[in-house]
Design brief:
Elements lengths: L7 E5 L6 H13 L8 E5 L5 H8 L5 E4 L16 H6 L4 E4 L2 H6 L4 H13 L3 E6 L3 H6 L2 H13 L4 H4 L2 E5 L7
Parallel strand pairs: 1-2, 2-3, 3-4, 4-5, 5-6
Length: 176
């Protein structure tokens, strides 16, 4: 068993840049990226930029990521996007469990688990975010908190599925 996982550097653009600004930023990023990389580089621009980004990334070593997906394949979920839709656009990775989604959209470990399943079922790779807020850190219960995030969202996966999951530990109090 390989004890070392592929290193990933991922840039989440969040809800920043217009399409034109995003195109300029991506051109600047690609101009600074060597042809061979010591790690996997993923950019996760806003949903509106995915088509443009996929076109520009063709032939480059940089992978395309999405910032979110819905856990259902289709249905009456206005404004949402499925993992299958993302795959059809050429997305390679999907971020799941980000603290902003957990806090701002009340995504529970169960919802994150369902999204993770959808991502893997679509044949995509997941970047699973976990981490504790400041009050949990100050109480000294961060290990229990993060362990629950991991157990409740990931521990149902088999070893083959888990090969397509990267864990990003981002303590919420340290972001920014």
């Amino acid at each position: 068993m390989d004890l070392y996982r592929t290193r990933i550097v991922a840039g989440n653009w969040k809800m920043n840049t217009t399409l034109q600004e995003g195109e300029i930023l991506l051109d600047e990023i690609l101009a600074g990226i060597p042809e061979t990389l010591p790690c996997t580089v993923v950019i996760a621009p806003p949903l509106t930029h995915l088509g443009m980004a996929k076109h520009k990334l063709d032939g480059s070593p940089v992978k395309l990521g999405a910032q979110n997906c819905h856990h259902e394949r289709s249905g009456a979920f206005t404004g949402e996007v499925s993992a299958e839709m993302l795959k059809s656009m050429g997305v390679d990775f999907v971020i799941v469990g980000h603290s902003e989604r957990r806090q701002g959209f009340h995504e529970t470990n169960e919802i994150v688990k369902l999204k993770l399943n959808a991502i893997l079922d679509a044949g995509l790779k997941a970047i699973f975010c976990c981490g504790e807020p400041l009050d949990i850190r100050q109480s000294g219960s961060q290990n229990i908190f993060v362990r629950m995030q991991l157990e409740e969202s990931l521990f149902h996966l088999d070893s083959e599925q888990f090969k397509n999951v990267s864990i990003a530990y981002e303590p919420i109090w340290a972001i920014g």
